[in-house]
Amino acid sequence: MPDPSGPPSLRPRRPVAHSFAELSAKLAALGAAGPGSAQPSDELITGVSLDSRAVLPGDVYAAVPGAHTHGARFATVARDGGAVACVTDETGGDAARAAGLATYVVDDPRRVLGPLAAWIYGEPARALTTIGVTGTNGKTTTAYLLEAGWRAAGRATGLIGTIETRMLDLQNTVPVNTAGNPALSVPVPLARADFPVTGLQLIGRPKGEADLLNAGRLIEAALNGKR
Q1: Rounded distance, CA 13 to CA 91, Å?
Q2: What's the predicted TM-score (pTM) here?
Q3: Neighbours of 57 (CB within 10 A)
Q4: Average pLDDT along the chain
Q5: Coil vs helix vs strand at 88
Q6: CA R_g for the chain
Q7: Is residue 63 classed as helix, strand or coil in its secondary structure?
Q8: Cβ-count burial of 68 within 10 angstroms (0-12 exposed, 13-18 middle, 19+ buried)?
Q9: How many angstroms separate the CA atoms of 71 and 209, rounded?
């Protein structure tokens, strides 16, 4: 099943590689407790995924609590897929460590995933003109109208929304609740730097205080490239 945060086809062909020392420093700056002696010295970090089934070798697996279960329950699946580290909360820490993953624990994993993913993929939003569309009704229509206008003006465009994620003509039509999963819905496809994308629309519908905060961080990170 494709990863709703960005299927492998939307992953960068030439990913940025980070050492574990760099990952630990980044996560420490974001308030995460490091893995201590479990930190490998020779592994490289090249990606991140929320979906254990879509993990690629070199990924950080983000094990977050869900409505029905905790992502840490699938830490062994992520490990078998090639994950080398896990970012989770205190509840998921033991399961991630038991799976043999270098485990970073933070109070609210979703809070750090946006800046972490942007960093892992080389801050791709900094090279793009980015528009965030939010509200109650009309977000998708607005995004498609903006994209049509940019295409008509000769701009190479991408779009991330609840219907599809698209970079030029490369498309992922897996339905995604953008506001509910903002942390990885932007940096992964944006990192497809081998596409000369110059404009991008994002759409999201906050459904509560937490989603509103996450959507705000998503748009802030996309527009300003903030860490």
Answers
A1: 34
A2: 0.71
A3: 12
A4: 74
A5: strand
A6: 17
A7: strand
A8: exposed
A9: 22
